[in-house]
Amino acid sequence: MILISFSKYVTASQVIIKMELTAVSASNKHVGIVIAKDTKYGLLIIPKLKSLEPGYYGFHIHDKPDCGIDGKHAGGHLDPKNIGLHFGPYNSNGHLGDLPNIFVNNNGEAIIPVLAPKLTINDILNRSLVVHNKTDYYDHKSFTNSGTRIICGIIPKIPNQVLQGSDYLEIDVIH
Q1: Which ranges of 36-167 would DSSP assign to H, the alpha helix?
Q2: Exposed, middle or buried, 29 (CB in 10 Å: 0-12/13-18/19+)?
Q3: Could you give the residue ranges of the DSSP H alpha helices within the chain?
Q4: What's this model's pTM, rounded to 2 decimal places?
């Protein structure tokens, strides 16, 4: 196994997003990273989050690259066409910010990738990625049904850039 440090750059088709708790009172704010990369099926989002309560959590791309004031500065869900409908990641009639819910296992880790078929890396650059404290049921009448913003990460302005420090990715080497 090889550990690769991403101190400043990654490949052009992916970004690495450092994720932190939004609560000002949190003693250790860093909870992991999320890797987002383009595939022929859409945007593959690979969470590597830790120290969370088991369960399902709402997961969204928010409009602004700002996690201030408990994540509220991130703005609303990504909706460049002003559709205003919250139908989930697989319905083309809804806005672009909806992602599949993420699952946190009994060890407190979110490690199962999700796919956002309506998105590419270019769609999410210079935005924020937010984890909410409740499961999202994609109720088009309410943008708040997934609860409080508990984790937030700023998505870089361009691919090849990692903001706010470095993290490690384990890669198995096949001889």
Answers
A1: 121-124
A2: middle
A3: 121-124
A4: 0.82
Alpha-carbon distance values, 33 to 85, 109, 169 (Å): 28, 11, 10
The two tokens of residue 29 are 């704010």
Q: Which two tokens stand for residue 108?
A: 């407190």
- Rounded CA separation 93/57 (Å): 22
> What domains sit in the chain, N to C, each tagged with a CATH number?
2-171 (2.60.40.200)
Over residues 102-128, the pLDDT tens digits come to 999 999 999 999 999 999 999 999 999
Nearest Cα to Cα of residue 122 among 154, 148, 157, 94: 157
CA dist 135 and 55 (Å) reads 8
Contact in structure between 103 and 113 (CB atoms under 8 Å): no
Q: Are 63 and 77 in contact (CB under 8 A)?
A: yes
